[in-house]
Amino acid sequence: MRPTLDVLDPLIPARRRLAVRLLLLGSVLAALAYWASSQVRLDPVDRHLLPILATGFLMGGLLLHYRPGTAPWLLPLVHGLLALYLLASLAYQLLLKPNPLGLSPAAYWVPFVYFSAFLFFPARRALSLARLYLLLFLLAVLGALRGHFQPAHLNALAQFLGANLAYTALLYLLTSLREGYQEVQAEAHTDFLTGLYNRRYLDLLLPQELARAKRYGRPLSLILLDLDGFKAVNDLHGHDVGDRVLQALAQRLEAHLRRSDRAVRLGGEEFALLLPETPLPQALRLAERLRRAVEAMAVPPVARITASFGVAEARPTDTPLTLLKRADEAMYRAKRKGKNRVEAAPK
User: Fold this and answer.
1) Is the pTM of this model over 0.70?
2) Out of 209, 269, 313, 343, which one is annotated catalytic?
3) How many alpha carbons fall within 13 Å on the CB side of residue 254?
């Protein structure tokens, strides 16, 4: 697992808001372009695609505003729609009907495809859009071979292609730097042994989740668990076996969690599970399932593995420290009552 971008990159919500505004503005501009072109003469590309762009941008902006979770598939779809329009418009000009004044106005929007990709998509996906440049270059060559261009047109085409080559190179540099920065961030928030998040990540995420729960009045629960008698495992079988136990436990935890949940190794044999949108009864049921899953684990030569669980639901007055303390007290109460059990903190 890796830390989510919403936590490690606080600009992600700002980018989402920017995307909503750009989509709504794009809808207006596409409608204006359709109206302006209709006053002279609409080419086939504008006649068919501009209405689709205007409608698609409007619906996309509204959907992204009210359903932010649609961003992973909506933004690539809208981006692809814009790229399709640009390619179709330039292909029509380059291969079928050259513009006597030079390149089509659609050419001005090609750099936007590159830089908006960098803003809204992961680095590798953004770089894949640079292939658009190769398609445009092929279209330009085909158009030139057919004799559609005068020297003035060829000069404009050369400037356009050269500028876009520079944009692509700059995009490659920026995305490479960004990718390296995010890798360093991810390593700083990941436990090297189990692959789970570490305590530093929980210290970053918990205040944000508490603030979100208080703001929207939504439930948030925290589970703390500690392996019973883990010191004896290391003493009897060695640290290599103890490491395998911790790794097996991490796999069991991840297998039982939703995508929105977070599993954290706090240190040693102690773990935390942060559960957004989860009231106490639901968190207790999950803790009991995990208790049974841990008890059923087989890591030879260890004969039996168990864990004690403490569960707390966030109160409106809770701080990260008080929520952790209440869950910790419940966990140690489970230890005192015989271990291998689940205890709840008072609500």
Assistant:
1) no
2) 269
3) 14
Number of Cβ atoms within 10 Å of the Cβ of 140: 20
Q: Please, is 221 exposed, middle or buried when counting C-beta atoms within 10 Å of its C-beta (0-12, 13-18, 19+)? A: buried
For the question of residue 277 being annotated catalytic, the response is: no
The Cα diameter of the chain in Å comes to 89
Residue 315 φ/ψ, nearest 5 degrees: -95, 160
- 45-100 pLDDT per residue, tens: 888 889 999 999 999 999 988 888 788 788 888 888 888 888 888 777 777 776 66
Token digits of residue 255: 């297998």
Burial class (CB within 10 angstroms; exposed 0-12, middle 13-18, buried 19+) of 315: middle
Q: 232: buried, middle or exposed (CB in 10 Å: 19+, 13-18, 0-12)?
A: exposed
Give the closest residue to 347 by CA, choosing from 317, 321, 309: 317
d(CA 65, CA 85): 24
Q: Which two tokens stand for residue 321?
A: 């420290």
